[in-house]
Amino acid sequence: MKPFLHASQAYFEDRLQLVFHPGLLFPEPTFISSEYREHMLNSDAKIAALTGVPYGKAYVDKMTRDHALSYHSVPSTIAVLSCGQQSANLALLMLEKIQNGHYVEGQDVSDLQVLARFAEELDCSKTAFLDSYAELGLRLAEKNSIRQELQRSVGSSGPPSLILEIGAKRRYLNPSLAYQAPRQMIVLIEQQLLHHQT
User: Fold this and answer.
1) What digits encode the pLDDT tens for the residues 125-153?
2) CA–CA separation, 93 vs 143, rounded Å?
3) What is the mean pLDDT of residues 176-184?
């Protein structure tokens, strides 16, 4: 997904605005059973083979050896949304930090101190980040309701979802195409923009 998001930002510049919404795959701290860990590792292997996305040894070791492993999507979600208040590009960079921290370095990206360090590495003030984090934490339910309405409007459910909104019209975009053929997805979006203009 990262190559597509970067490529689309560079290609469309100010013609399209990238907006992040909360996915919340794990809205509460959730224990990850051995069966689910095995399922996730198998899915990761397929994604790696398909896209070339790296999965680090630290992540794999954590998945296979940490029998008390739990996931919680809320902290990392709020971190991305907090950065998104400054710019879509900063939100994308934070998302990359989180994904690399989780999938490559095996870090606990539900730890607020880890997330605050990521923000500092992106030249964000730690104090400003934590203030924004606290404010958005209070508005997460509202943000999640907006995301659910968006998904319902295009017949989508669950993350990841890509929705193209032009004027008052929305269209669901297949995330698999963004993973496998980013340029083809950009061509599809360009066609939709041209169609709207005519």
Assistant:
1) 999 999 999 999 999 999 999 999 999 99
2) 20
3) 89
Whole-structure pTM over 0.85, yes or no?
A: yes
Residues 21 and 91 sit within 8 Å (Cβ to Cβ): no
The 10 Å Cβ neighbour count of residue 24 is: 18
- DSSP class of residue 139? T
The DSSP bridge partners found for residue 164 are: 171
Q: How many Å apart are CA 171 and CA 169, to the nearest integer?
A: 7
Which residue in the block uniquely carries the two structure tokens 């971190």? Answer: 79
Determine the length of the chain: 198
CA 109, CA 89: separation in Å to the nearest integer? 20
- Nearest Cα residue to 174 out of 160, 158, 194, 193: 160
